[in-house]
Amino acid sequence: MTTTDQITDEPPTTAGTGSGTDAPTPAEALERARELAPRFAERAGEYDAAGAFPVADFEELRAAGLLGLLVPRRLGGSGAGFAEYAAVAAELAAGAGATALVFNMHASVTGALAHTPDELIRELGAPDYVFTARDRVLAGAADGALYAVAMSERGAGSRLSRITTRYRREGDGFHLTGAKTFVSGAGHADAYLVAAKEQTEPEAAGDEGGDGTGRVSYFLVPAGEGLRVEPTWDSLGMRATGSHDLHLDVSLPADALLGGVDGLAVPMAQVMPQWLVASYAAVYVGVARAALAAASAHLTARGLQALPAVRARLGRADAATAAAGLAVTEAARRVGEHPGEPETNRWIWRAKLLAGDTAAEVAASALEAAGTSAMRRGHPLERIYRDARCGALQPATSDVCADWLGVAALGGDPENAPGASRW
């Protein structure tokens, strides 16, 4: 692994150079993802072993025009919808789960920006400059910029109500202070979508721990001065995501506030959960497919494919993976046709629950079928097993998804159920 693959505190130098190609159509983007996946798979073991960000993978994603997948055609992108994103993400994850997971974070930023209706933004009272700022960010992605998400914090996880990163108004702009963890692509992104809580004066009693009532907003923070990456990522799975800690003490212009309105973070999570919930699901369907393919190759090479027990394991794994894939497809179809409707959101939570649990179960069963030889470090199944185990743990976790669905099944309102806030 070259030194350029290592984490640095310097802003990346590859963004803004353009891909050098015309933006692919969504169908062409899917075909390019299929072509890239085998190359990603060849490099995945090396990046995993080093715990290094997959620089070469993202150079190829940029060159293929896939960072602009969700950007409207008028801004130089592919103009894809959520269903087309899900298909691309699953293909990429079949090659390298960690690469697809970072791509998912980028897509959650560009997708939310591109797919929030202008009418809704205006109804919220957003100033006109918001549209110019949004288009600039999206055009940057089409030109090769990579965006990351900085939402989670130590002690708070991804629960927006518990975060301690603060923002205050400073002249015509804002000042942000705090620290984030699990920031996939930290040090390699051109900008970060940061969740921060409004700081009031004097700060409400008890708010130091994140229990206050300050509004939670999103800011797009460019890499560079005021940001520091702390290389903390040394995980069991998804080791190549470069999900290091990010420290912020930065001043921002007014148009860095996403949507131009304070307090949009939680409503957006509730109205458009596909970008915080189901986008992960597509990745883990791809990881489950990778586990099946790796197990099939290993078992065939060892002449074990004739064993009935082996065939039964892979048969069940195949059915479970296909079922999870269909759940993601149905959720994605509904997002495209009926975004924000209760039944659409129900399918979004189902998709995340099924994909996260299925990936872990399929990878575990495949590893058992393959035997101890596949548990050695460096074997594809060993890496895929570790990556797959992360699916149920990433937000929203499988337990949170199941609880949300349980409340709905009992006739309740999952977004306003009693008890601790999911967000």
Question: Can you lay out the helices and strands and say which pair or pack?
Answer:
Blueprint: H1 26-50, H2 55-63, H3 82-95, H4 97-115, H5 118-123, H6 129-142, E1 147-150, E2 166-170, E3 173-183, E4 191-198, E5 216-222, E6 227-230, E7 244-252, H7 265-271, H8 278-301, H9 308-337, H10 342-370, H11 380-388, H12 398-409
Parallel strand pairs: 1-4, 2-4
Antiparallel strand pairs: 2-3, 3-7, 4-5, 6-7
Helix pairs in contact: 1-3, 3-4, 3-8, 3-9, 4-8, 8-9, 8-10, 8-11, 9-10, 10-11, 10-12
Descriptors for this entry?
7 strands; about 425 residues; alpha/beta; 12 helices; 3 domains; globular; disordered N terminus; Butyryl-CoA Dehydrogenase, subunit A, domain 2; Butyryl-Coa Dehydrogenase, subunit A, domain 1; Butyryl-CoA Dehydrogenase, subunit A, domain 3; seven-stranded mixed beta sheet
Number of helices: 12
What is the overall shape? globular
Helix content: 40-55%
Look at the structure and give the mean pLDDT: 89
**What would CATH call the homologous superfamily of the largest domain?**
Acyl-CoA dehydrogenase/oxidase, N-terminal domain
Count of the domains: 3
The CATH architecture category of the largest domain equals: Orthogonal Bundle
**Rg, Cα atoms, Å:** 21 Å
User: Segments where pLDDT lies below 50 for 5+ residues?
Assistant: 1-20, 203-211
Which CATH C-level class of the largest domain is it?
Answer: Mainly Alpha
Q: Assign the CATH topology of the largest domain.
A: Butyryl-Coa Dehydrogenase, subunit A, domain 1
Report how far apart the termini are: 38 Å
Q: How would you characterize the largest beta sheet? A: 7 strands, mixed
Number of strands: 7
Q: Element order, helices and strands?
A: HHHHHHEEEEEEEHHHHHH
Structural class of the secondary structure composition?
A: alpha/beta
Percent range for β-strand residues: 5-15%
